[in-house]
Each structure stands twice: as C-alpha cells, then as structure tokens.
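Sample intake sheet
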Amino acid sequence: MAAKLSPIINPKELMQLSNSAEIILIDARAGANAAQNYQNEHLKGARYIDLNKDLATVETDPANGGRHPLPSLEKFSAVLSKTGITPESHIIIYDDKNGSNAAARFWWMIRAVGHEKVQVLNGGLSAAIESGYPISSETEIFEAADHYPVSNWKLHTAAIDEVEKARNNAQNTVIDVRDKNRFDGLTEPLDLIAGHIPGAINVPFSENLDTDGFYQSPQLLKEKYSRIIGDKKAEDIIVHCGSGVTACHTLLAMDYAGIPIPKLYVGSWSEWSRNDREMATKQTE
C-alpha cells in the first residue's frame, strides 16, 4: 500500500516537480486585488481559483451560512472541471498568507469530495520564489476536464444548532482559531459584533506556524492538539473562525499531525454573531 501523501509540501519538493506535467498548481490568493496580482505575477503554470466565486456562494445576508458558505456540490464540480482537475490530478495549492487563506479552504473542500492527492505549499508564494521556482505574468493555457464526479461532502461540518448544543456539552470542544484580540472582543475588523461563542476555546491558527511562517513539525502539532482535545473523537470537535476559511488552516495542521480531521463550522462567527445567539467577550466571562 502506498504511503499517505503529506498534506504539506515544502518548496524544495515543489522545485523537484516543477517540470512535471502531472501536477496542477493552483494560485488561491484572496482579497480585492488577488486576481490582478495573479495576472501580474504567479508561479509558472499556476491556475487561479477565486475564493468568493469558486470556493463559496456568497449570500447577501451572512446570517444565512456566514460570509463564505460552501457552494453547491454541482457548482464545485464545475469549478474543478473548468480548472482542468480530474480525480487523478496531483494538486498543489499556494496563497500568500502561509496557507491560512483560500489555500487551506480549497484543500479542505477537495479533500471533502474524496480527492486525496492534494497538498498545500509550505510558506506559500514567497517561499517558492525564494527557492527559485520560476514566476510568470503570462496567461496560462490549459484544457478544461470532463465532469468531476462528486456525490457528497465526505468531511464533516457542523451547523449552528449543533454548535449551540456542543458549546454547553463537556463531551465536545469548540475551537475558535481567530487571533486573541478578536476572540476577546477587543477588535473586530470584518464582522458586525466583536466577541466569541461562549464555551469556545481560543487556539489561534498562527500558532500552527514557526517564526519563519512555515508549519510546525507534525510531531509538535500532534503534541499540541493532543493536549487540547485529549481523548475526544474527531466528531466531537468543532473548529471555526470568522467565516469558515482560516479554520481550515487548523484542520490542515491536524491532518498534517496525523490527527483525524474534526468538524468545520462553516458559518463561524460571521453567522453566529448575526443570529441573536449568546455571545461573550473577555470582560463578560
């Protein structure tokens, strides 16, 4: 039996694959200027995936599913097909936020439809450039693939009512990966109300990284998350963030550490804080 592919690939390993026709390299940078930044400069051969258009179905009211609800399976299948991805593709994804933005979200989504041969680039775009990976501003030409078959989301998610029950249940752990100031309610740059879900614990995603912006070793990550979750099963752990994107960075870290992937609360704080649910800050707890 072949060894399980690591969900993280280092720049030097990517360099060894730079001339391989078997990999599909994905640029998953997000933000207002992401598409233009991709056109200006990207890793040679990379194809662009848009967080809002391809990896979410953005609703007018984030109270219904948060700021980045999952797209339908049919839409996601079409995204994979138009990007040239087949069930046999070896996909490598990068962004410019150490994997914490849409790279991890895309990793989670494609794993969630059963695709195993997918990795996130450790250190992201800048690390690849520093390692000598060629860059380009040319339009990448590739063929769309046949329909990518999907049937269901195979990784587990939690809806808002399940989170409500879990936060009051000692058998569950709800993990908020936002930075401490947002969790404490001291600042909120994206959503309407600052604070956190009462009963949740704060484990910032940034702690998955070392001082150089690379993922901590699998051993260190396993020690850390084993202390946090104890002997609880993956289905009893719920991970969230602001809108279900950055939470995937921690799910990726757990998978890298060899820990079963917990549930993702896709709606996250952006949904919870808009639904008259109980909320807390550092001052109120």
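Comment: The CA atoms of residues 175 and 239 lie 5 Å apart. The chain has two domains: 8-136, 160-272.
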